[in-house]
Amino acid sequence: MTMNARDVSTKKTQLSEDASTYVRNLIMAGELLPGASVRPEAIGEALDISATPAREALQVLRVEGFLELLPRRGFIVAPLTGDDIRDLFRANALIAGELAARAADVATPDDVAELEALHHELLAAASRRDFEALEEKNFRFHRQINHMAESRKLGWVLGVIERYVPSLFYASIEGWPAATADDHSTILESIRAQDAEGARVAMASHMAHAGELLAAQFDKRSAAPLA
């Protein structure tokens, strides 16, 4: 089947968005440190896409402030510190905590059952050290809570903030798998009891905890001498 112009444009846009998400996650997880060179050819090779959507992705990240474009050097990672990451997670904690509180208020038995199933799958993934599955179950656990809250505007605001929060590579953060399992248990308990304030505090604490783990690792990597 021949693709029409709209299909080609949509596919190209999706490839560019996938590439920007990939690089954004690398930066926020500390895999690409400030000052590091980011070449579209290397990104294209890593994702098995052409350099064109990869270059478009890097331009988007430059506008967002993740990258800088320097003469004769190309794209480099913009300055970023552990404290910047802590600030982002503090903002995330405020919105995520409110959504968790609203979810607890309206949680149905079916909602709780879905969260419990996801949590059990997350624990199983953590126990067998299947970090890819762990990240996926973590994402679905949080998405389910946000969906339960039924607040599209707050969800939109959280989505904007979460562009600056990695959705991948958490497994490489020391202490994160255990923290996720423990923190989610507390969140789930509050939602099961329809304890809105408890859910708010538990979720906010969870996000602050995750932010501190990521920021500490970022500071550690930034301080390490170059090989």
Automatic annotation (TrEMBL):
SMART domains: FCD, HTH_GNTR. Residues 13-80 form the HTH gntR-type domain. Keywords: DNA-binding, Transcription, Transcription regulation. It comes from the Bacteria. One of its GO terms (molecular function) is DNA binding. SUPFAM superfamilies: GntR ligand-binding domain-like, Winged helix' DNA-binding domain. Gene3D superfamilies: GntR ligand-binding domain-like, Winged helix-like DNA-binding domain superfamily/Winged helix DNA-binding domain. This is GntR family transcriptional regulator. It comes from Subtercola lobariae.
